[in-house]
Amino acid sequence: MDILNTKLIDLMPATLKSSQEIQWICASVQPEIDEIIACIDKILFTRLNYLDDLTLDYLLVECNIANSPEMTLIATRQDKINFIKNYVQLKKLKGTKAGIQYVLNLLGFRGDILEWFEYGGKPYNFQISIAGAESLPPERMKLLNALILEYKNTRSWLSYIQNVALKSTTYVAISTTINITVRDKQ
Question: CA-to-CA distance for 89 and 94, rounded, in angstroms?
């Protein structure tokens, strides 16, 4: 149950939910509750710098980040604050192609995600091509897989991760100087 998105009528016991008067009361009070929750949300997330570490840890638990693969990426107090500030956006990304792209960016990779209909694969499969990662250490690959599992659509399956060597074009400027001496014929 997410307290920020719970409606008052949902908290009522079944015997009271069926009462028309209770439904009207809940419907009339709900806009005020929504306003208060919006204020709490704004106040809480703009004052994170003033909270102690224990409170930040509690917020990480509340945001379901404390036991997730992202926790391995949180090393400093500022990392905690950044993850808490962005948790709503992170939740919106879960289950989307943008969520997988977020994972790649989070780990510092550049890559392309192709869905099954883009490469003619099996339905609900996708593949990832990571640029510049010739060989990933096992710990990094394990973290990448855990984050992909966390952010992919639950019905989608990762076919494979392909490491692609970076291709770069180097331009070299060459200039020559030609000295021409002109002599008069005499």
Answer: 9
